[in-house]
Amino acid sequence: MQDLGGKTVILRTYEATKETGLFDEVYVVTDSEVIFKEIELSGGNAIMSLKEHDCGTDRIAEAVENMDVDIVVNVQGDEPFTSKSGLEQVLSVFNGPDAEKIDLASLMTEMYDWKEISDPNAVKVIVDKDNFALYFSRSPIPYPRDKNAAVQYFKHKGIYAFRKQALLDFYQLPMRSMEAAEKIECIRYLEYGKNIKMAISNTQGIEIDTPEDLVRANKVLKEDKTITVNNKYRNFPMVPKVIFGRGSFDQLSSILAPKRKDKAPFIYLVDDVFKDNEDLINRMNLRFNDKLIFVSAEEEPKTEQVDNIVKKIKGEFTYSPSGIIGVGGGSVLDLSKAVSIMLTNKGGASEYQGWDLVKSKAIYHVGVPTISGTGAEVSRTTVLTGPEKKLGINSDYTPFDQVVLDPDLTVGVPKNQWFYTGMDCFIHCVESLNGTFLNEFSKSYGEKAYDLCKEIFLSENLSEVESRGKLMMASWHGGMSIAYSQVGIAHAMSYGLGYVLGTKHGIGNCIVFDHLEDYYSEGVRLFKEMKAYHNINIPKGICSNLSDYQMNTMIDIALGLVPLWENALGDDWESIMTRDKLRELYLKM
Ligand code: NAD
Ligand code: ZN
């Protein structure tokens, strides 16, 4: 009943749970008259428990005994920051291939700090290879006899999703000794041989167990109001140095020279399409212990790939590098940005997927695009596919310190690829110009890039040289246009395709955009015209054989990109883009 930013903790928890839109019904089950009244008077649903209970689970079991329910989720009353993503994750396991086996599901989060690992207030969990819980304990498990062994510790989060029967069983089964010793409810299930599936969720919630927690929560609530992603004012860095022009690539060594730190090498990450291009490699002018690493753009960059490159660099050099130079398309540019960040930040790249999670300044990094359209050369993000999501590392440390724009480097890009990546730029403009976040800043860049794209892709009298220079600048402007706004529906849906099917960004955008006439009518009309003009075929039917699980994952990934939907459809986006609507669109593709 404590106050949290003008509302009680229990009411906030109730409302947050309801707002997720994941449940048919939400109830507060309580043995307290005061709490019961608080919820009822605010127009919510509350149930007074009849009997006295030892724990919340028993109380819920009593409440649902005569209800017609399938799955029941227990959200602790002291979790006002209950997030949709955590609840979605715990529910999603019931759509997985081993759903039959699951009696209940719960969440766990990675832990790294030994102080927390050894703290008995934090319940640890160990799992088998399929993430079924083996044991929960207040002791550190496993015990790290070998201090160097690589083992991931997980903290148990108090969110449970039960099949109704499991919940009723719990109610009837007497407590046994291990549960009594550890004072951890869910051990009872293990003691009776039930299967608890654990899902990983690394989003940080705040549980309110102590008065200090409440102070912290009040602070978070205040900050939350000022720091949102689509805030009105954004103070973002732009690329501080850029050189442009045919042949400007040859300036690279003199640009780098003053940045060289003693024995620290420059690391070149180069698209392996240039592996046999001796001319280009010679022009890079590697010195001393500089290192050239060829990377494949076959698949989109993964957090794991970033971690591996960082490991390789750290393993080979005792000094941190003088700089990272990325030479390639959006894939290689994004990898280079991420590697430069991860060389100075602890842990793995997946921990930084999101907005403003990067703590330390990145290593000096230079971007040299060899294909135009993504805007990755100017953007504040590096799009990565991680174990849980496809999401960028968006931070003030992400943008390049230096960019080299040499249109001649884009000679040789295959025609289809030229079109797909070029359309990424066009779609950035359409999504930004039609978005609710649009302001004059974005518009000025977006309109310029939009016009350039029309010229490049639809006019007959442009030489190849002109066209390459123009597309390079269109990409730049398109990227700047979304710096102050956001992309929209095509990108959100294309991320879903990318995550589930591995469809690459450019072609994925085209597949989706082709069917978005209801949302971007003029843009889609022009797109179709450009497609026909260049005789480009877009793959069809790619979602027709998806399993339910794949389709649901795709929808989850797409809907998880909240700022994109807010930009595209406004605050009310959730009522416009329902899961069914999205499924229907995917099936059309
Ligand atoms: P890409 O980097 O994936 O490259 C596409 C293909 O073109 C590859 O096979 C590559 O080897 C080849 N290629 C590149 N340059 C070439 C050249 N000069 N000659 C011949 N072949 C060449 O393509 P992309 O469309 O530039 O980048 C897509 C990636 O960019 C995706 O991973 C996407 O997530 C990311 N992206 C990032 C941002 C951002 O702001 N950071 C924005 C949009 C897209
Ligand atoms: Zn894009």
Overall pLDDT: 92
Distance between the termini: 50 Å
Oligomer: single chain
Number of helices: 23
- According to DSSP, the number of beta strands is 19
Q: SS-based structural class?
A: alpha/beta
Query: Could you describe the largest sheet, including whether it forms a barrel?
Result: 6 strands, mixed
* Portion in beta strands: 5-15%
How much helix, percentage-wise, in residues? 40-55%
Stretches where pLDDT is under 50 for at least 5 consecutive residues are none
Globally, the shape reads: globular
Rg of Cα set: 26 Å
Bound molecules: nicotinamide-adenine-dinucleotide, zinc ion
SSE arrangement:
Elements: E1 3-4, E2 7-8, H1 9-19, E3 28-30, H2 33-41, E4 46-48, H3 56-64, E5 71-75, H4 84-92, E6 104-111, H5 114-117, E7 124-127, E8 133-137, E9 153-163, H6 164-172, H7 177-182, H8 187-191, E10 196-200, H9 211-226, E11 241-244, H10 252-256, E12 266-271, H11 278-284, E13 291-295, H12 303-316, E14 323-328, H13 330-342, E15 354-355, E16 365-369, E17 383-385, E18 390-394, E19 402-405, H14 415-433, H15 440-458, H16 464-483, H17 489-501, H18 505-513, H19 521-533, H20 548-559, H21 562-569, H22 573-576, H23 579-588
Helix pairs in contact: 3-6, 12-13, 14-15, 14-16, 14-18, 15-16, 17-18, 17-20, 20-23
This protein binds nicotinamide-adenine-dinucleotide and zinc ion.
If you had to describe this structure to a student in words, what would you say it looks like?
The two termini are 50 Å apart. Helix 3 packs across helix 6, helix 17 crosses helix 18 and helix 17 packs across helix 20. The strands form five sheets. Strands 5, 6, 7, 8, 9 and 10 form a six-stranded mixed β-sheet that branches. This protein has a six-stranded parallel β-sheet with strand order 11-19-16-14-12-13, with helices on one face. The protein has 23 helices and 19 strands. Strand 12, helix 11 and strand 13 form a beta-alpha-beta unit. Helices cover 41% and strands 15% of the residues. It is of the alpha/beta class and 589 residues long. The protein binds nicotinamide-adenine-dinucleotide and zinc ion. The site of zinc ion has 5 residues, from helix 14.
